[in-house]
Amino acid sequence: MPRQKNGKVHSHWDVLKWDTDPAKVCVLLNKLTLKLQYACKHCGKNYTGNVTRLKEHLAKCKTFQKAIAKEKKDTGNAVQQGSFTLATPSQTPINFPRISKSEKANLDIQAAMWCFMGNHPFTMFESTFAMTFLHGLNSAYKPPSRKMISGPLLDAVYSQVKTRTDNVITTLQHINVIMDESTNINSTRISNISIQLDAGSLHYISEDI
Description:
By secondary structure, this protein is an alpha+beta fold. It is 40% helix and 19% strand. Strands 1, 2, 3 and 4 form a four-stranded antiparallel sheet that branches. Strands 5-6-7 form a three-stranded antiparallel sheet. It is rod-shaped.
């Protein structure tokens, strides 16, 4: 009996059989060995049905190798051009609250300004009630710590307020300067200078005298 076919190998071969029409006879059946003859679909060369010989031929068949190379190239181009369908997610994505770096920085400045202008302690946002309140507004926002408010944020807010104050003063036609004296916690004499405006007074600077 002929050997069973190898699907990957025999798919590239045509089995040769006797034809009822003598004019169309193109194949022989080897009745002595009961082996079929095959014709390569790519180059037409005939071989007796031995799988090993058929595989060896395909490895050397230039026409077959060119066809395989072209198929791989076409497949690669199709993938690069996006000619495939992505699987539809079976689960609904969860939208976690997010906040950008610029939004975080702006909110930190506003929080520090609230602390300074309201004369609140630097630990005001570390309170459990403050944390609960802010979490209810936006759970992605983490308020600044006491260390941040008394350090980098204090410097940033001072620079902003100083710039605004200077801009207001430069637009005034007349400047009314107010000076008084006080002491600090070390009992050092301090001279305080303010500018009087129609809307009120602006503290400008304090100097150690």
